[in-house]
Amino acid sequence: MTELLATARHQHILDALRSHGQVRVTSLAQDLGVSEMTVRRDLNLLATAGSLVKVHGGATLEATPTSSEPGFTKKLSLESAEKQVIALAAAAMITPGMSIALNSGTTTFALAAQCARINDLTVVTNSPRIAEVFYAEDNHSQNIILTGGIRTVSDALVGPLALSALDQLHVDILFLGVHGMTAEDGFTTPNMLEAQTNQAFIRASARRVVVADHTKWGVTGLCQIAGLGEVDGLISGTSLDAEAAEILRQSIDTVVLA
Fold first, then answer.
1. pLDDT for the residue 69
2. Which of 42, 195, 244, 245 has a Cα at 20 to 30 A from 86?
């Protein structure tokens, strides 16, 4: 009987991993009605079998190198429905006459499409793809400022030219896409130059809001952009783990699950 219960627990853990990309010991203990020690033993067995990778406080399906960075096109197809909902929630914060900044990313790309028809908007971005969204709409009431710079794998413009441009600007609100977020490391990216550019975006902004789908939780990139408490708001999807949402709310004033 114990053997069957253990098998059922293991299957639940693997199903949760496939759905969310990562799991937490505390959440699994509550879901399964067992002690955290029992969950840790289950994770140890599954890790030994090669079914998952243990991380601090839980597990992930596989260990991703902190410097690994998928291309823009590949990322565009991931969690696309959730990104659209996040974009709608973020767009509701924008009114005509505002100045906003959008760093390069697929969630900010989705947000750009929602902003393209807002009149009298000034948009600062380091993403040629985002700039193209606004240019295609041809809204003459808008001002679009594209920083210069060196193009990365994720289609971000970075380096001295981008930093110089951002150091001269001040915007009302920044919508910041990130590669990963954790309690320990905050918001991160695999690219050092992108981290520097995103930090310049933060310095240039009166208000900072992270837009990130639920799969970004538990992921750590090579370089830190900012600690959790250095932003004013975060918008994610309803699939974000409840424990993760609580951790974020302890550091961030406004957390919205759209």
1. 59
2. 195
- Write out pLDDT tens, residues 215-258: 899 888 889 999 999 999 999 999 998 889 999 999 999 999 99
- Band (pLDDT 50/70/90 cuts) for residue 2 is very low
CATH number of 2-60: 1.10.10.10
Is residue 172 within 8 Å of residue 94, measured between CB atoms?
no
Q: What share of the chain is helix, strand, coil (3-state, %, to 5)?
A: 45, 20, 35
Alpha helices in 98-144 (DSSP H): 106-115, 128-137
- CA Rg value for the chain: 20
- The residues of the chain that CATH labels 3.40.50.1360 are 72-257
Mean pLDDT across 173-194: 94
Residue 1 has pLDDT above 70, yes or no: no
| 129: its two tokens | 């793809």
Residue 70 above 70 pLDDT? no
How far apart are the C-alpha atoms of 123 and 116, rounded to whole Å? 10
Give pLDDT tens digits for 103-125.
999 999 999 999 999 999 999 99
Say how many C-beta atoms besides its own lie within 10 A of residue 63's C-beta: 11
CATH number belonging to the domain at 72-257, selected among 3.40.50.1580, 1.20.1050.40, 3.10.310.50, 3.40.50.1360: 3.40.50.1360
Task: Determine the average pLDDT of the residues in 53-69.
Answer: 70
CB distance 230 to 186 below 8 Å: yes
Q: Which two tokens stand for residue 48?
A: 């030994």
**What is the C-alpha to C-alpha distance for residues 248 and 28, in angstroms, rounded to an integer?**
19
E strand or H helix at 224:
strand 223-226
